[in-house]
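In the present case, backbone shapes were mapped to integers, as reproduced here:
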Amino acid sequence: MSVPAPSRLPPLNALRAFEAAARHLSFKNAARELHVTPGAVSHHVKQLEDSLGMPLFRRLTRALELTPEGHVLLPKVQEGLRNLAEAVERVRSRGEARTLTVMAPPNFAARWLVPRLGTFTDRHPGLDLHVASRPSMIDGRDDPHTRPSPESSEVAPVAMVRFGDGRYPGARVDEVFSAVYVPVCSPKLLRGTRPLRKPADLRYHTLLHDETVLEEGARPSWAAWLESVGITDIDASRGTHFTDASLSLEGALEGLGVALAMKPLVASEIDAGRLVMPFNISSPASYAYYLVTAEGAKPGSSVGQFRDWLMEESASER
């Protein structure tokens, strides 16, 4: 059976007036329910009858009765109004659902963000949180065809943590913390026939390199670190090379050698004794971690709540 085109359907107000009047068998009671006058209900019902070309009520002296046609129409109108109300409520509930997508570089997400995330989810238990680990959140590793936007919407607000130079036009940018690199290794490298006690002892140990593609000078290399401590007779290019920071840190945890790591990201490993800093000589990076969000994100929104929590959580690092 074909469905009538929307333009051929009676006005919604006429259908609502008919349904209420038929349920109460009274224009007066229907008017009270719909917060209109009895005359308005009568007018809408007459409009519906005219459009159908048949009466739906018998208007008696002190009562209303449905005609046979009215009896046929009433249950379908009630079903239609009920379906419409459910659809509207479903859309309204979807619009009111609290969601947030957080995108972050892999090393930051795994070693700093996720271990602390429980305090955020405990504070906001009604928030549907999606965390995505993306190499594209590192400046210099962007894919111009898939680069995400910080623009926020009612349906899918987004907060991005980026490792870069902090220049992101058209967005709100908050510095989470700057990057300071220190040598780290397994505690067992401090012992043995060639104990690691001073920078010059690095000549007897494997250097672990993070070869994440970054702009030149964005973070210190082993060559720059060795030069900063006055050591020029160690080949800074030798050792084991990894494609990202997480792999070089795993190598350090396994005792494969010494890695240059961002201090805030390995603090928990150092506190637990799984990693040590053989010498606390740090080297700053020109890159830092930044929270990048839409300029118009409101303080009470999920993006605003995540921003408040992140800046509070990272205050000690800054």
